[in-house]
Amino acid sequence: MQQDQPSHPDDAKGGPAKPNRLSDIVKSINGNEDMTIGQLVDSLGERAFGALMFIFAVPNIIPTPPGTSAILGLPLVILTWQVMIGRQSLWLPALVRQRRISRDMIQTFVSKVTPVMIRLERVLRPRLSLIAGSNAAERAIGLVAFPLSLILFLPIPFGNMLPAAAIACLALGLAERDGLAVAAGYVLSLLSVAVLAAISSALYIAVVAFFRALFGL
């Protein structure tokens, strides 16, 4: 899978290089009108797996209009699955491509995320290639991100923020070839599973206690 590399003033054979820093990619999104997920994917280019993972995950961390996770959750599931199996280009079914993203959602995302991305890019750089710079490493990222994206897609109370943060870190590492960001994503993934297990256990105990009290058991 061919991923983004740090941008250069010119391509190796001459001509202007495509902007491929995540902040440039995020800023390039047109927030003046509603757009479909298909238009968003096409505007970024199929090369930007890491950028798309980041864009679909981060709205679950920052305050965004209601319904964001329902709109972006399914394409994130499909995207991370394709990273996991090592596809070279992104495919989305027509039903997903036709889903609309509101102008307000786009503008909120771009305005809140771009300044953070610019600061992060000062420290992001290719390193620890063993866990970020090979096809096997990319598949491992997909293997971890895929179940986390399923958690985001499901209506689990308080279950979105940590998995979204983990996927965002993995996406940064994937896009920038930064193994340290990938490692942070793996740590957050483990923390997400632990917290989700604790929440699930607490909810189960609460439900059981409720019905026992209700029926006098």
Task: Give a description of the structure.
62% of the residues lie in helices and 2% in strands. By secondary structure, it is mainly alpha-helical. α3 runs antiparallel to α4, α7 packs antiparallel against α8 and α8 runs antiparallel to α9. The longest helix has 37 residues. The chain is globular, with a radius of gyration of 19 Å. The N terminus is likely disordered.
Structural class: mainly alpha
Overall average pLDDT? 78
Residue windows where pLDDT falls under 50 for at least 5 positions: 2-19
Strand content range: under 5%
Overall strand count? 2
* Number of DSSP helical runs: 9
Termini separation comes to 57 Å
Helix content: 55-70%
What composes the largest sheet? Answer: 2 strands, antiparallel
Q: H/E series, N to C?
A: HEHHHHEHHHH
Strand line-up of the largest beta sheet = 1-2
Please tell me how large the radius of gyration is.
19 Å
Sum this structure up briefly.
The chain is mainly α. 62% of the residues lie in helices and 2% in strands. It contains 9 helices and 2 strands.
Task: Give me some keywords for this one.
single chain; 217 residues; mainly alpha; two-stranded antiparallel ribbon; 9 helices; disordered N terminus
What secondary-structure arrangement, pairings included, does this model have?
Blueprint: H1 22-27, E1 35-36, H2 37-44, H3 49-57, H4 68-85, H5 94-97, E2 100-101, H6 103-120, H7 135-153, H8 161-176, H9 179-215
